[in-house]
Amino acid sequence: MSGGALLQRGGGPGLYAAVARKGFRRYATYRTATAAGVFTNTVFGFILAYTYQALWDERPHLGGYGEAQALTFVWIGQALLATVSLGVNGGLDELQERIRTGDVAVDLYRPADLQLWWLATDLGRAGCQLLGRGVLPMVAGAFAFDLALPAAPGPWAAFLVSVVLAVTVGFALRYLVALTAFWLLDSAGMAVLGGLAATFFSGLLLPLRAFPEGFGEAVRLLPWASLLQVPADVLLGRYEGAAVLGALGFQAGWAAVLLAVGRLVQSAATRKVVVQGG
Q: Which of 12, 39, 79, 201 is 20 to 30 A (C-alpha) from 215?
């Protein structure tokens, strides 16, 4: 039976729920790495927050944000940095290595879909990172700065939905990068390029709304805006009423497109490419 045919066998929702739980538990065991990540995110958050304060002193309404909103944007970024794997190919570096060594051939013979298996794993990883490395830096930022966090539960609920969609878009982008290992001897360079694109075009360094007008409008249409800019704006109340559904629809649309492209690339790879090392 061909690899492409095997991929169509898939698996039930219970299987992928179990895979997600396994991914959560796996990352939950890395307590020292999580503690180090919390410390790093918090320190970087303070550095970026003080930088933003200096910038907003000169440009008080840069990008349409007040200082409190800008500082909140910083700490949302730190909360989502590991959750969405901004700047790294986190979680899928293992897939890249399995493709390089040929071990992915074993994965293709599992009674599960390769893409859904790794998506479920990544959702479990993201949930662990959100709780482990997301909440504490945000709390530290809220104690140290006057943040513009909503009091009503509605924006928080919409934010959590937006985070799930952000993780899905992030996975879809990183999955495409990982699949380049089918054709490249070493796809580490592609992972670096993908990380740089995610860092710059997500708004991690500076909100995309603060970019020059024409350029800023263009980059907000790219998929990387779904990773941080959209979730942050949802929590900050930049969308109201039906506009919230539009923002979530923007993320869902990119998730669907990128997952579909990943499916096509995966199909081409498993049909036509000889697995390196296998």
A: 79
Q: Divide the 278 residues of the chain into consecutive groups of 10 and give the mean pLDDT of each group.
A: 41 86 90 91 95 95 94 96 82 83 82 91 94 92 95 95 97 93 81 89 94 93 97 95 96 98 90 51
Q: Tell me the residue length of the chain.
A: 278
- CA–CA distance, 250 with 222 (Å, rounded to integer): 10
Burial class of residue 7 (count of CB atoms within 10 Å of its CB; 0-12, 13-18, 19+) = buried
Helices (H) and strands (E) in the chain, counts: 13, 0
Contacting residues for 157 by C-beta, under 8 A, at least 6 apart: none
* 3-state percent breakdown (helix, strand, coil) of the chain, nearest 5: 75, 0, 25
Q: How many CB atoms lie within 10 A of CB 189?
A: 11
